Amino acid sequence: MSTYHENAVDADIAVIGLGSMGSFAFWQLASMGKSVIGFDRFRPGHDNGAGHGETRIFRTAYGEGVAYVPLLQAARELWRKLEAETSVELYVETGGTMFGPKDDNFITTVQESVQQYQLPHKVYEGPEAKKEYPQINFQDNQVAVFEELAGFVKPELAIETAVKRGEDLGGTVYTNSPVTRIEPDDDGVSIMCGDKQFRVKKVIVASGGWTSKLLPQLNLPVSLERQVLVWYKARNPELFTPDKFPIFSRVSKGRGFYGFPSLDGETVKVAFHHGGVTADHPDHIDREIHESDLLALTEKVKKYLPNLIPEPVKAKTCFYTNTPDEHFVLGPAPGLQHVTLLGPMAGHGFKFAPIMGEIAAELATDKTPSLDIKMFDPNRFQ
Ligand SMILES: Cc1cc2nc3c(=O)[nH]c(=O)nc-3n(C[C@H](O)[C@H](O)[C@H](O)COP(=O)(O)OP(=O)(O)OC[C@H]3O[C@@H](n4cnc5c(N)ncnc54)[C@H](O)[C@@H]3O)c2cc1C
């Protein structure tokens, strides 16, 4: 901790928030040989933020925009890199199917992605898709794009692994340590955390849904949206193992229904994408599960996954930090020198964590980002 000598610093760079994104920035900075300190208001791998619930979808054929594909290809390499460095399995390639009405913007953009980047894939009409994956009751008027490189990553384990690897490479972690204020000046940044003060040259803010509370002066037009993840038992669990069942995402008009293979050999996790209630603060998210959270999802299960028993056996809440255009926030924080914003990441950021962490580390070390991040410019809201 600094005792405030004029030029004394506690580290080159601080990462505030060691959740989905910050954990990876922390690992990348430590890998670069930088002195880095990381803070989290909880213990990394916790279930109070956006990075929990056992699985997150990874896909490269990207309905949210073809421009994301190079980032996803780079992210995939980095998922494998962290696995190789730690011998921990984080990314399971099951293949994935995105399906929906032929003319839906999401599906047509998925198809553009596979064509433009020659991603290994197959396209089926509904009846053919049903023959290939009888676990899913594809509708006759739907088209299904099967992407080979899709799969799932393991959020809690990934966050813990990235933080641990960063520590092994020399980084320092402060857990259960909420940062209350950051004060940039010409020479660096002062960080207030409880009764302690730290001094660093640069800061990466990766505090997810709490960013608007930490930096209210940015007036980020983000909103918090509660989401619910629900597990159902399979009648024939052997049909839902990761080698037999792909991740799936059925999207239409911006709303979605998605699910994963079984991790425990008994249950399958499914959820809706969007449609949740909003909250004014991450600490005020309703964590209770209500009957109304389950009814519509159970109806979808009956319609699309007849081999699941339509009685929820487990559920968890989580939240998105949505941006108006659903693109991420990544870049220098407007008006705050030496501060890089890494997030908020809307409702689809987890799969990108390694590449977002790497680019934030590049920005914080005054390097030119290795990939195009124009669409994430924090200034676009002003
Ligand atoms: C239900 C659900 C399903 C999702 N499914 C997918 C999916 O399948 N695929 C996908 O790619 N994405 C998915 N997402 C989106 C993805 O999980 C998020 O985009 C991502 O987790 C956001 O990461 P983050 O680092 O910004 O936030 P978080 O992971 O919440 O991290 C923020 C961290 O900052 C810490 N923090 C906050 N304030 C402070 C402070 N003042 N001081 C210190 N620490 C602080 C918090 O404790 C937290 O650890 C899903 C999200 C949800 C909720």
UniProtKB/TrEMBL annotation:
SUPFAM superfamilies: FAD-linked reductases, C-terminal domain, FAD/NAD(P)-binding domain
Keywords of the record: FAD, Flavoprotein, Oxidoreductase
Enzyme class: oxidoreductase
GO molecular function: flavin adenine dinucleotide binding; sarcosine oxidase activity
Keyword Repressor found: no
InterPro entries for the chain: FAD-dep_OxRdtase, FAD/NAD-bd_sf, MTOX
Names of required cofactors: FAD
Highest taxon, organism lineage: Bacteria
Gene3D superfamilies: D-Amino Acid Oxidase, subunit A, domain 2, FAD/NAD(P)-binding domain
Domain FAD dependent oxidoreductase span(s) in chain numbering: 12-363
Keyword field contains Flavoprotein: yes
EC number(s) on file: 1.5.3.1
NCBIfam families in alphabetical order: PRK11259.1
Protein's recorded name: Sarcosine oxidase, monomeric form
Species per Swiss-Prot/TrEMBL record: Lederbergia lenta
Taxon lineage: Bacteria, Bacillati, Bacillota, Bacilli, Bacillales
